[in-house]
Amino acid sequence: xxxxxxxxxxxxxxxxxxxxxxxxxxxxxxxxxxxxxxxxxxxxxxxxxxxxxxxxxxxxxxxxxxxxxxxxxxxxxxxxxxxxxxxxxxxxxxxxxxxxxxxxxxxxxx
Length: 110
Fold this sequence. Notes:
Low-confidence stretches: none
Mean pLDDT: 89
Number of domains: 1
Number of helices: 1
Strand order of the largest sheet: 1-2-3-6-5-4
CATH superfamily: predicted glycosyltransferase like domains
Largest sheet: 6 strands, antiparallel, barrel
Radius of gyration: 13 Å
Distance between the termini: 7 Å
Strand content: over 45%
Number of strands: 6
Shape: globular
Structural class: alpha+beta
CATH architecture: Beta Barrel
């Protein structure tokens, strides 16, 4: 699945680490579904961290807000971490439908 057209910013909701990432942690998306995503980042966030996630599709300036949690993280290189995120809530059903349609479009291309 080609995820080059997906931009994702993570913001931890944990008050103990929020100040480090208040502007967001921009990540590269490896894979995405309606239940979660696999991303690459330059920093490791602790497993169990609850997140506010801003997702942009196809270069759109419109952000889709999703809530989730880091379920696993592993270091792949000195400054490269692969992280698994489980989605736990959507701001509304229309945004979930937009992501569903985007995923279906990507799947049809492959």
